[in-house]
């Protein structure tokens, strides 16, 4: 290896006896299960444990699912598997004669984790590194990842031999690096960034978790873990900062209760859209509960649904579908069958909200005015859900309760 080595073998004219060149990671790639079909594989990496890597992997999976993709999570964090808990999964993975089947979450995200195989999820994994590495490899080679658009890998923390095995054996397309503002973590995250660079895997961006805490009493932000260094790290490695997440007790509660799938105002929604753009895929359907062209006040009793087809953040076509009639629980399923990913409405009943959440459809409520303008505002990121739910008022039934 020459002193000027930038670890980019593809552009290097070094002779074949370069040890670095002969050890390029692609040599160790393992084939997936023959019944698997996976389009994109994204690794979620952190320099150390406890910075929120698993929570961010989960939220990102939920956001991608809400955009209409088929999503899987390969939990490669064998010694600290927290993905099944965040989704409230209690059943075990089925081992069939064809291969191991992931467990589906309530909205249909495929999950494989060591905790889905262990008899008790409190059993510790006291195995040495090579064995742990083999298990992760098997999660790739022996599990049937059926028709997955995005497979997210919750990487083992750190830069040791297990993440190295994952990088070498699974064809990861890109990496998201998660960090928190502590100086110590900043130093360690640079190791993670350098590791990804050495493995020739593109880093899609950095996400800073636990950036600040917003005091509910005075609305001020406090840098609980110290001032952020994320912009400096990003500049030093010419990377993008994709998101900064606050410390939010409701996120902790959602992970603990197993309800991360139904977390409203998902802070990873914009990162999912960025990923879509990076992969050149941005198709989605947005439905607006309307009175002709105006947003209806009450979801269940709207006159029609204006359904907009979106490509690359632009409306490419729209159709109006008459409200087929309000029966409790019917309309959310009807819109799901139309392939809708986002619903915009005025008021909506708690029952309808629940069904949309179960289907992984993003809900924007409290909107008013022109339907097309609202969709454009949503695409620009300026239309936010007020979260206003029609309950216990005279329109209760009209708003789509179960
Ligand atoms: P890692 O995968 O990096 O080890 P986890 O995702 O398991 O970390 O997160 C550790 C704990 O911190 C979990 O209980 C999680 O719910 C909580 N947590 C992570 N990020 C946040 C946040 N932004 N606000 C509140 N709690 C968080």
Strand order of the largest sheet: 5-6-2-7-1-8-9-12
Instruction: Catalogue the unreliable spans.
Output: 392-402
Give the N-to-C terminal Cα separation: 66 Å
Label the structural class: alpha/beta
Shape: globular
The count of β-strands is 18
Strand content: 15-25%
Tell me the Rg in angstroms: 23 Å
Bound molecules: adenosine-5'-diphosphate
Mean pLDDT: 84
The percentage helix is 25-40%
Q: Helix count, per DSSP? A: 12
Describe the main β-sheet briefly.
8 strands, mixed
Topology as a string of helices (H) and strands (E): HEHEHEEEEHEHEHEEEHEHHEEEEHEHEH
Topology:
Blueprint: H1 19-22, E1 38-46, H2 53-66, E2 71-75, H3 83-86, E3 94-95, E4 100-101, E5 103-104, E6 110-112, H4 129-141, E7 148-154, H5 161-169, E8 174-179, H6 183-198, E9 203-208, E10 213-214, E11 221-222, H7 230-236, E12 241-244, H8 249-257, H9 269-278, E13 283-291, E14 294-295, E15 304-311, E16 314-322, H10 330-337, E17 342-345, H11 350-358, E18 362-365, H12 371-380
Parallel strand pairs: 1-7, 1-8, 2-6, 2-7, 8-9, 9-12, 13-17, 17-18
Antiparallel strand pairs: 3-4, 5-6, 10-11, 13-14, 13-15, 15-16
Helix pairs in contact: 2-9, 4-5, 10-11
The structure holds adenosine-5'-diphosphate.
């Amino acid at each position: 290896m020459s002193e000027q080595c930038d670890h980019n073998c593809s552009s290097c004219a070094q002779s074949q006896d370069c040890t670095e060149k002969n050890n390029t990671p692609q040599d160790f790639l393992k084939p997936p299960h023959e019944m698997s079909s996976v389009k994109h594989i994204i690794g979620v990496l952190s320099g150390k444990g406890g910075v929120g890597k698993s929570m961010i992997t989960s939220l990102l999976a939920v956001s991608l699912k809400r955009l209409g993709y088929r999503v899987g999570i390969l939990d490669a964090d064998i010694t600290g598997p927290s993905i099944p808990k965040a989704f409230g999964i209690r059943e075990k993975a089925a081992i069939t004669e064809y291969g191991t089947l992931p467990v589906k979450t309530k909205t249909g995200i495929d999950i494989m984790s060591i905790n889905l195989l262990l008899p008790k999820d409190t059993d510790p994994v006291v195995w040495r590194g090579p064995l742990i590495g083999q298990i992760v490899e098997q999660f790739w080679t022996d599990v049937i990842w059926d028709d997955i658009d995005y497979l997210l890998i919750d990487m083992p923390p750190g830069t040791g031999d297990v993440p190295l095995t994952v990088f070498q054996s699974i064809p990861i397309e890109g990496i998201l690096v998660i960090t928190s503002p502590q100086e110590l973590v900043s130093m360690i995250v640079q190791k993670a960034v350098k590791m990804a660079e050495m493995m020739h895997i593109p880093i899609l961006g950095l996400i800073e978790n636990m950036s600040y805490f917003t005091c509910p009493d005075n609305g001020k932000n406090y840098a609980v873990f110290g001032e952020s260094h994320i912009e400096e790290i990003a500049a030093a490695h010419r990377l993008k900062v994709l998101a900064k997440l606050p410390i939010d007790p409701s996120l902790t509660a959602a992970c603990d209760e197993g309800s991360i799938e139904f977390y409203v105002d998902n802070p990873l929604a914009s990162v999912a859209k960025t990923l879509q753009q990076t992969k050149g895929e941005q198709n989605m359907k947005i439905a607006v509960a309307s009175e002709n062209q105006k947003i209806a006040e009450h979801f269940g009793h709207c006159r029609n649904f204006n359904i907009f087809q979106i490509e690359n953040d632009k409306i490419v076509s729209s159709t109006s579908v008459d409200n087929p009639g309000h029966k409790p629980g019917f309309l959310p399923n009807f819109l799901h069958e139309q392939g809708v990913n986002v619903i915009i409405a005025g008021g909506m009943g708690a029952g309808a909200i629940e069904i949309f959440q179960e289907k992984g459809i993003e809900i924007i409520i409290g909107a008013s005015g022109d339907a097309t303008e609202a969709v454009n505002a949503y695409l620009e990121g300026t239309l936010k859900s007020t979260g206003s739910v029609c309950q216990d008022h005279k329109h209760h039934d009209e708003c789509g309760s179960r």
